[in-house]
UniProtKB/TrEMBL annotation:
A single BP term in Gene Ontology: DNA-templated transcription initiation
A GO molecular function held by the record: DNA binding
RNA polymerase sigma-70 domain segment(s): 57-70
Coiled-coil features, chain-numbered ranges: none
Organism encoding this protein: Nodularia spumigena CENA596
InterPro entries, A to Z: RNA_pol_sigma-70_dom, RNA_pol_sigma70, RNA_pol_sigma70_r2, RNA_pol_sigma70_r3, RNA_pol_sigma70_r4, RNA_pol_sigma_r2, RNA_pol_sigma_r3/r4-like, WH-like_DNA-bd_sf
Signal sequence extent: none
UniProt KW keywords: DNA-binding, Sigma factor, Transcription, Transcription regulation
Identification of the protein by name: RNA polymerase subunit sigma
Upper taxonomic lineage: Bacteria, Bacillati, Cyanobacteriota, Cyanophyceae, Nostocales
Pfam families: Sigma70_r2, Sigma70_r3, Sigma70_r4
Length: 258
């Protein structure tokens, strides 16, 4: 259960976010950056272990993502700030690594467990007649829930988000994430970076079942048949969720920002 100190910190952050939304004060923004340093530190540690980049450099890049999240956050939407900010921090670090040509490595143990999880997931789907939870998968693999979540994160993030990854929609041909952004011309480096972060945030806002299908297709480069086997659902369901997810992303991405 959350401690009193933890609740007090969350309340302080929430109050400062409310004040910043109205005043756009640099002083308040800097306070928010300091209070949320732990989010940046956690992401920097994760990526340092994945690619051996300098920790201080990753922290500095992560700070840029945190500042962007603070500037974009809207109290009225009701999101937890930490959950909202992480895709921005992660996106900024991923873009930095991609720009440097860094290859993110996945430990051999993680690769083996990821492959094992495909069969285990299928067996559990047949047993429970539904998709297994992360806790059930972790237990079946004889690992902790935390380690399984780390494996999922490593697999999804093994290469930075690309706007050009194609996906085949049986009804409408081939499309890509880049086609969902308002300006397909990418007039500047900054625009491409902004679009990637917005896409990551939009993915976060999708319901879990739809997001998982899109992550398998766009991040893991799986075919719809492979996605169906991996998630224990039918190919028809995968196709429907891809179409639904792309439609929702397109709608979210078409909303103009103030």
């Amino acid at each position: 259960m959350p401690t009193t100190a933890s609740n007090e910190l969350k309340n302080e952050i929430w109050q400062l976010l409310r004040e910043y939304e109205q005043s756009r004060s640099d002083t308040i923004r800097n306070k928010l950056v300091k209070l949320n340093f732990g989010l940046v530190r956690k992401e920097a540690h994760y990526w340092m272990n994945q690619c051996r980049e300098n920790y201080d450099d990753l922290v500095q890049v992560g700070y840029l993502g945190l500042i962007r999240a603070i500037e974009k956050f809207e109290i009225s939407k009701g999101h937890a700030f930490s959950s909202f900010a992480i895709p921005y921090i992660r996106g900024e670090i991923q873009h930095y690594l991609r720009d440097k040509g860094v290859t993110v490595r996945i430990p051999r143990r993680y690769l083996a467990l990821q492959q094992q999880a495909i069969g285990v997931s299928r067996d559990l789907c047949e047993k429970y007649n539904r998709q297994p939870t992360d806790s059930e998968l972790a237990a079946a693999l004889a690992i902790s829930l935390n380690e399984w979540q780390e494996i999922k994160l490593a697999w999804v993030n093994r290469s930075p988000l690309s706007l050009d990854v194609p996906v085949l929609d049986s009804e409408e041909g081939t499309t890509s994430l880049g086609e969902l952004v308002p300006d397909p011309k990418y007039r500047s480096f900054q625009l491409a970076q902004e679009d990637q972060i917005r896409l990551q945030q939009a993915l976060f806002e999708l319901e879990k079942c739809t997001r998982e299908v899109l992550e398998c297709v766009f991040f893991q480069d799986l075919t719809q048949k492979q996605v169906a086997e991996h998630l224990g659902i039918s190919v028809v369901t995968v196709s429907r969720r891809v179409k639904k997810g792309l439609g929702l992303l397109k709608k979210m991405m078409s909303v103009k920002e103030d």
